[in-house]
Amino acid sequence: MSKLFVSEHPLIQSKMAMLRDAETGAKEFREIIGEVAMLLSYEATRDLPLKEVQVQTPVDVAQCRTIDTKLAIVPILRAGIGMTEGLLRLMPTAKIGHIGLYRDPNTLLPVEYYCKLPADVEERTVFLTDPMLATGGTAEAAIGFLKDKGVKKIIFLCILAAPEGVKKIQEAHPDVDIYAAAYDKCLNDHGYIVPGLGDAGDRIFGTK
Ligand SMILES: O=P(O)(O)OC[C@H]1O[C@H](OP(=O)(O)OP(=O)(O)O)[C@H](O)[C@@H]1O
Ligand SMILES: O=c1cc[nH]c(=O)[nH]1
Ligand SMILES: [Mg+2]
Q1: Domains, the chain, ranges and CATH?
Q2: Which ligand is nearest to the Cα of residue 199, counting in written order?
């Protein structure tokens, strides 16, 4: 079964308090989403494969290790874009793909509208980002697209995870680990995470 990692880090906890606050405006919200994503990507990259390399220092030859896989960051549009910059800070050579999915507000089912991925995506370890894992329908579909393109290693990063979404991913994609900044208690009747932080996309882009 896939792993669910929920951060206990004090920096992330403090930033989550600001993100959840309904008074936090779009500029600050966007900045904090990026910071939390960067901190979470530090945890999510912990198990990346390494290879031995020799480096000539000014003094001697040092035996070092570097990451032994090509990387890609794939945000789920729109809200996942808010996390991209944070991941890029730590993985500046990663290629970036985009998957466009929105959740129909009535059926709560994902609707696809865009997909553009690096040509060699199947050779890459893919960090799939979306701030909200609610029912899990969106993430489940996005992971399915990536697997259809031949991607073998996918790591899902979100800011908030709900039990329903985690269960769906663990059942549908047991090979995909989930990294979350917080794990909330449930969904409300509109499929919003409770206590949550509201509509992540609208808060990042200031559309409401
Ligand atoms: O787990 P689920 O129940 O599928 O819900 C989560 C999805 O809903 C939100 O996107 P939204 O549809 O609001 O699109 P947006 O990113 O364009 O705001 C969120 O960013 C996820 O993509
Ligand atoms: O709480 C939620 C659930 C889905 N999408 C959001 O943006 N927020
Ligand atoms: Mg939204």
Answers
A1: 4-205 (3.40.50.2020)
A2: 2
